[in-house]
Automatic annotation (TrEMBL):
<feature type="transmembrane region" description="Helical">
    <location>
        <begin position="89"/>
        <end position="110"/>
    </location>
</feature>
<feature type="region of interest" description="Disordered">
    <location>
        <begin position="134"/>
        <end position="154"/>
    </location>
</feature>
<feature type="transmembrane region" description="Helical">
    <location>
        <begin position="31"/>
        <end position="49"/>
    </location>
</feature>
<feature type="transmembrane region" description="Helical">
    <location>
        <begin position="61"/>
        <end position="83"/>
    </location>
</feature>
<keyword id="KW-0812">Transmembrane</keyword>
<keyword id="KW-0472">Membrane</keyword>
<dbReference type="Pfam" id="PF10710">
    <property type="entry name" value="DUF2512"/>
</dbReference>
<dbReference type="InterPro" id="IPR019649">
    <property type="entry name" value="DUF2512"/>
</dbReference>
<feature type="transmembrane region" description="Helical">
    <location>
        <begin position="7"/>
        <end position="25"/>
    </location>
</feature>
<protein>
    <submittedName>
        <fullName>Membrane protein YndM</fullName>
    </submittedName>
</protein>
<keyword id="KW-1133">Transmembrane helix</keyword>
<feature type="compositionally biased region" description="Basic and acidic residues">
    <location>
        <begin position="141"/>
        <end position="154"/>
    </location>
</feature>
Length: 154
């Protein structure tokens, strides 16, 4: 299975658990809205942080970017999709915090998997190879060739 699909699956599971735990318990939100919030949060986080920021920076910067992005995504989607009297900002902050706790482990898994994929890559030469023959391997040429060391006439 491809590493990217594993990471998306893990991120989706973590996001679903956190969103269902916080927004589902405290806000009694609709299950379809929670699924949409989970999928969008995991997707945005994967494509922005794991595919763009993590390869260019280190694990700490990617985790901080994950926290900020998860908070913004959860706050915006929560305010639009979850109908409640209470503000969603505090719940978004807690959910982003719990998501950010799991991200360093996921980033380490991504970096380790990419390193193993790089190690397993093999160089495959192109199709423009030619066979090369040296004249010394031809038996007739060896018999006809005059070697000054062999043909000493002293």
């Amino acid at each position: 299975m491809n590493l990217n699909w594993k990471v998306i699956g893990i991120k989706l599971i973590i996001s679903t658990i956190v969103v269902f735990s916080i927004f589902g318990i405290f806000y009694h939100a609709n299950i379809m809205n929670l699924i949409v919030v989970s999928i969008l949060t995991a997707g945005v986080s994967y494509f922005v942080v794991d595919q763009y920021i993590l390869p260019r920076t280190n694990n700490l910067m990617a985790t901080l970017a994950d926290f900020v992005l998860a908070f913004a995504t959860l706050a915006v989607l929560g305010s639009f999709l979850i109908v409640t009297d209470m503000p969603v900002i505090l719940a978004s902050l807690f959910a982003a915090f719990f998501l950010a706790l799991t991200e360093p482990l996921l980033h380490a898994y991504i970096q380790d998997g990419e390193e193993k994929e790089r190690d397993n890559m093999r160089y495959v030469p192109g199709r423009n190879l030619q066979t090369e023959f040296a004249e010394e391997t031809d038996e007739e040429t060896l018999l006809r060739k005059k070697d000054p060391r062999r043909d000493q006439t002293d």
